[in-house]
Write a structure and sequence with these properties.
This protein is α/β, with parallel strands linked by helices. Helices cover 43% and strands 22% of the residues. The protein has helices spanning 26-38, 57-72, 84-92, 96-99, 105-113, 138-150, 161-171, 186-195, 213-228; strands spanning 4-10, 13-22, 44-55, 76-80, 130-134, 154-158, 175-178, 201-203. Strand 2, helix 1 (26-38) and strand 3 (44-55) form a beta-alpha-beta unit. The radius of gyration is 18 Å and the shape is elongated.
Length: 233
């Protein structure tokens, strides 16, 4: 089902009610266009997701990216009335603590005035395993960064293979994840592999971007753990 958006302004808060699928392609572009249009007059957004029946990795990454953009603009993004599917995805990827979803539009709007902050990142000082992610999609990188950080990894991202080797060396990364957008650059991947032969390279399947976000996330975390434990991909 194509994504249908209904927008309403409530004082200084923009409420967007979504119906259908939030997935890579026209749907994510439509949602992005709506955000960009409304950000001219508002920096506070509520997404009502009661009728969203599917969200893929890029779709969830887009929400993570919007969340960061609005927070940096001194605004915010609240999710509310999650469908059972969306709730499952957020819980499975540990992103429910990032978005802190609300039960109703009223509660989400009121949350802005209560200065309810996102859960703090772990600051215990414990050394974390470092992962570098490469892909051409900013939304997919946002998804990977949020997913892996919530899974306990220190995560760095780049859109360019030529920058990745420097980033891997500087970060002393233990694993490199190459997204579907890098698969067309086989010479670049091989050159990268030869330049960093001791760092395991995990190349995601072409359908990772369009896969159901929670299952894709669980599979990725499992594969990274297997690599770190000396297993295959």
């Amino acid at each position: 089902m194509q994504l249908v958006l209904q927008t309403q302004k409530m004082d200084d808060v923009a409420v967007i009610r979504c119906q259908g699928r939030i997935v890579t392609g026209d749907e994510v572009r439509a949602l992005e266009h709506e955000f960009e249009k409304l950000m001219q007059t508002s920096k506070k957004f509520v997404l009502q997701l009661a009728e969203v029946n599917f969200i893929d990795s890029v779709g969830l990454g887009a929400l993570v990216r919007f969340f960061g953009v609005l927070r940096n603009a001194r605004g915010g993004l609240r999710l509310c009335q999650l469908s059972p599917f969306v709730l499952h995805v957020l819980q499975a990827t540990n992103l429910d603590s990032v978005f802190q979803p609300c039960a109703s539009e009223k509660e989400a709007i009121e949350a802005f005035s209560k200065a309810r902050l996102p859960a703090p990142e772990d600051s215990s000082g414990e050394s974390k395993t470092r992962v570098v992610c490469i892909d051409t999609s900013n939304d997919l990188l946002a998804y990977l960064r949020a997913l892996l950080q919530r899974s306990g990894y220190e995560t760095f991202t780049t859109r360019y293979l030529q920058d990745a080797r420097t980033l891997v060396q500087a970060a002393r990364a233990s694993v490199v994840v190459c997204g579907p957008g890098t698969r067309s650059n086989e010479p670049g991947i091989e050159e990268f592999r030869q330049g960093a032969p001791h760092v395991p390279l995990l190349i995601l399947q072409p359908d990772f971007s369009t896969a159901e976000a929670s299952q894709a996330g669980r599979d990725l975390v499992t594969r990274i753990q297997s690599l770190l434990n000396g297993g295959g991909t």
